[in-house]
Design brief:
about 10% helix; mainly beta; 14 strands
Length: about 130
Protein backbone atom coordinates (compact mmCIF):
# COMPACT_ATOMS: atom_id res chain seq x y z
CA UNK A 1 0.00 0.00 0.00
CA UNK A 2 1.20 3.51 -0.84
CA UNK A 3 1.76 5.36 2.45
CA UNK A 4 0.59 8.65 0.88
CA UNK A 5 -2.65 7.21 -0.55
CA UNK A 6 -5.75 8.50 1.21
CA UNK A 7 -7.89 5.84 2.82
CA UNK A 8 -10.70 8.19 3.88
CA UNK A 9 -12.09 11.48 2.61
CA UNK A 10 -14.88 13.35 4.38
CA UNK A 11 -16.50 15.96 2.12
CA UNK A 12 -17.57 19.51 2.89
CA UNK A 13 -21.28 18.61 3.10
CA UNK A 14 -20.68 16.02 5.84
CA UNK A 15 -21.51 16.78 9.49
CA UNK A 16 -20.41 14.35 12.19
CA UNK A 17 -20.97 14.33 15.93
CA UNK A 18 -18.86 11.62 17.52
CA UNK A 19 -15.41 10.08 17.57
CA UNK A 20 -13.48 9.13 14.43
CA UNK A 21 -10.64 6.61 14.21
CA UNK A 22 -8.31 6.37 11.18
CA UNK A 23 -5.60 3.78 10.63
CA UNK A 24 -4.42 5.20 7.28
CA UNK A 25 -4.13 8.70 5.81
CA UNK A 26 -7.33 10.76 5.85
CA UNK A 27 -8.54 14.12 4.55
CA UNK A 28 -11.30 15.95 6.42
CA UNK A 29 -13.23 18.81 4.80
CA UNK A 30 -16.37 18.54 6.93
CA UNK A 31 -17.86 19.74 10.21
CA UNK A 32 -17.00 17.51 13.16
CA UNK A 33 -17.81 17.72 16.84
CA UNK A 34 -16.00 14.91 18.65
CA UNK A 35 -12.51 13.42 18.77
CA UNK A 36 -10.21 12.33 15.94
CA UNK A 37 -7.59 9.64 16.51
CA UNK A 38 -5.28 8.44 13.76
CA UNK A 39 -2.12 6.47 13.16
CA UNK A 40 -1.10 8.26 9.96
CA UNK A 41 -1.35 11.66 8.26
CA UNK A 42 -4.56 13.59 8.98
CA UNK A 43 -5.16 16.56 6.65
CA UNK A 44 -7.75 19.13 7.71
CA UNK A 45 -8.98 20.85 4.53
CA UNK A 46 -9.86 24.51 4.01
CA UNK A 47 -13.63 23.97 4.33
CA UNK A 48 -13.32 22.01 7.60
CA UNK A 49 -14.82 23.39 10.80
CA UNK A 50 -13.81 21.15 13.69
CA UNK A 51 -14.60 21.30 17.39
CA UNK A 52 -12.44 18.37 18.32
CA UNK A 53 -9.21 17.14 19.82
CA UNK A 54 -6.89 15.46 17.32
CA UNK A 55 -4.24 12.80 17.97
CA UNK A 56 -2.22 11.34 15.10
CA UNK A 57 1.30 10.86 13.82
CA UNK A 58 1.15 13.97 11.60
CA UNK A 59 -1.48 16.68 11.21
CA UNK A 60 -1.69 19.31 8.45
CA UNK A 61 -4.31 22.03 8.91
CA UNK A 62 -5.76 24.32 6.24
CA UNK A 63 -9.15 24.88 7.93
CA UNK A 64 -10.68 25.83 11.28
CA UNK A 65 -9.94 23.74 14.40
CA UNK A 66 -11.06 24.43 17.97
CA UNK A 67 -9.41 21.87 20.24
CA UNK A 68 -6.05 20.44 21.23
CA UNK A 69 -3.74 18.74 18.74
CA UNK A 70 -1.15 16.10 19.65
CA UNK A 71 1.11 14.58 16.99
CA UNK A 72 3.93 12.03 17.26
CA UNK A 73 5.87 13.62 14.40
CA UNK A 74 4.67 17.02 13.18
CA UNK A 75 1.88 19.61 13.11
CA UNK A 76 1.72 22.09 10.22
CA UNK A 77 -0.55 25.14 10.23
CA UNK A 78 -1.01 26.41 6.68
CA UNK A 79 -1.69 30.07 5.82
CA UNK A 80 -5.49 29.54 5.67
CA UNK A 81 -5.75 27.80 9.06
CA UNK A 82 -7.43 29.10 12.20
CA UNK A 83 -6.55 27.07 15.31
CA UNK A 84 -7.73 27.72 18.86
CA UNK A 85 -6.20 25.20 21.23
CA UNK A 86 -2.89 23.79 22.37
CA UNK A 87 -0.44 21.95 20.12
CA UNK A 88 2.01 19.28 21.25
CA UNK A 89 4.49 17.74 18.78
CA UNK A 90 8.25 17.42 18.24
CA UNK A 91 7.99 19.66 15.14
CA UNK A 92 5.50 22.52 14.73
CA UNK A 93 5.40 24.78 11.67
CA UNK A 94 3.18 27.84 11.30
CA UNK A 95 2.99 29.63 7.94
CA UNK A 96 2.54 33.39 7.57
CA UNK A 97 -1.18 34.14 7.58
CA UNK A 98 -2.15 31.27 9.88
CA UNK A 99 -4.07 32.25 13.01
CA UNK A 100 -3.10 30.37 16.17
CA UNK A 101 -4.41 31.02 19.68
CA UNK A 102 -2.98 28.58 22.21
CA UNK A 103 0.24 27.16 23.56
CA UNK A 104 2.89 25.05 21.83
CA UNK A 105 4.75 22.25 23.54
CA UNK A 106 7.59 20.73 21.54
CA UNK A 107 8.49 17.38 23.09
CA UNK A 108 10.31 14.48 21.49
CA UNK A 109 8.43 11.82 23.50
CA UNK A 110 4.83 12.49 22.47
CA UNK A 111 4.31 8.81 21.57
CA UNK A 112 3.76 7.82 25.21
CA UNK A 113 0.36 9.58 25.15
CA UNK A 114 -0.91 7.41 22.27
CA UNK A 115 -2.77 4.14 22.08
CA UNK A 116 -3.27 2.11 18.92
CA UNK A 117 -6.41 2.78 16.91
CA UNK A 118 -7.47 -0.88 17.31
CA UNK A 119 -7.40 -0.54 21.12
CA UNK A 120 -9.46 2.66 20.95
CA UNK A 121 -12.02 1.06 18.62
CA UNK A 122 -12.28 -2.02 20.86
CA UNK A 123 -12.93 0.21 23.89
CA UNK A 124 -15.62 2.11 21.95
CA UNK A 125 -17.31 -1.14 20.91
CA UNK A 126 -17.27 -2.41 24.50
CA UNK A 127 -18.93 0.84 25.65
CA UNK A 128 -21.65 0.44 23.02
CA UNK A 129 -22.28 -3.20 23.99
CA UNK A 130 -22.70 -2.29 27.66
Amino acid sequence: MDANRLEAILGADTKISGNLFFKGPAEINSQIDGEIVGESLITIGQTAILKTNIKSSEVIIYGNVTGDIVAKEKVSLKNTSVVTGNIQAPIISIEDGAIFNGQCIMKQDVASSFVKVEDTIEDAIEDIEE
